[in-house]
Amino acid sequence: TTQPLQVTADVRGFAGRRIAEHLVLADEDLAATNTEAFPDRVTARPGRGATLDGGVLTSELPPVSWNVIRLSTSPAP
After folding, report:
1. Would 26 disulfide with which of 30, 49, 55, 65, CB 3.0-4.6 Å?
2. Cα 15–Cα 74–Cα 68 angle in degrees, nearest 5
3. Which of the pair, 7 or 73, is modelled with greater confidence?
4. How many other β-carbons are positioned within 10 Å of the β-carbon of residue 31?
5. The whole model's pTM is what?
6. How far apart are CA 45 and CA 29, in angstroms?
7. What is the rounded distance in angstroms from the CA atom of residue 6 to the CA atom of residue 40?
8. What is the pLDDT of residues 47-63, one digit of tens each?
9. Starting at the edge strand that comes first in sequence, how are the strands of the sheet with 45-46 ordered?
10. Distance from C-alpha of 69 to C-alpha of 21, rounded to nearest angstrom
11. Alpha carbons within 13 A on the beta-carbon side of 63
């Protein structure tokens, strides 16, 4: 719960893919909530550092987080 998690996934079966999106939901304070004063305290934000190289996806995920890494075959916008 205090250290990031290194994730590696073999996605070679999904030829021609690229990382279309990486979303992370996390907060250093595990008891954090959205309030009237801070309505966006806990919300999904763009993730950083996910890479796709030779069909291997790697990313370092923050501790106690929810992540979505979406792959796509369409060209980058």
Report:
1. 65
2. 80
3. 7
4. 5
5. 0.85
6. 16
7. 27
8. 999 999 999 999 999 99
9. 45-46, 18-25, 66-72
10. 6
11. 6
Give the per-residue pLDDT at 75.
75
| Token pair of 20 as six digits | 């279309």
CA atoms within 13 A on the CB side of 69: 20
Nearest to 62 by CA among 31, 22, 24: 24
| 57, two tokens | 């996806």
**Backbone dihedral region for residue 19 (phi beyond 0: left; psi -120 to 50: alpha; all else: beta):** beta
User: Considering Cα of 59, then 23, then 11, then 20, what sign does the dihedral take?
Assistant: negative
In the predicted model, is pLDDT for residue 77 greater than 90?
Answer: no
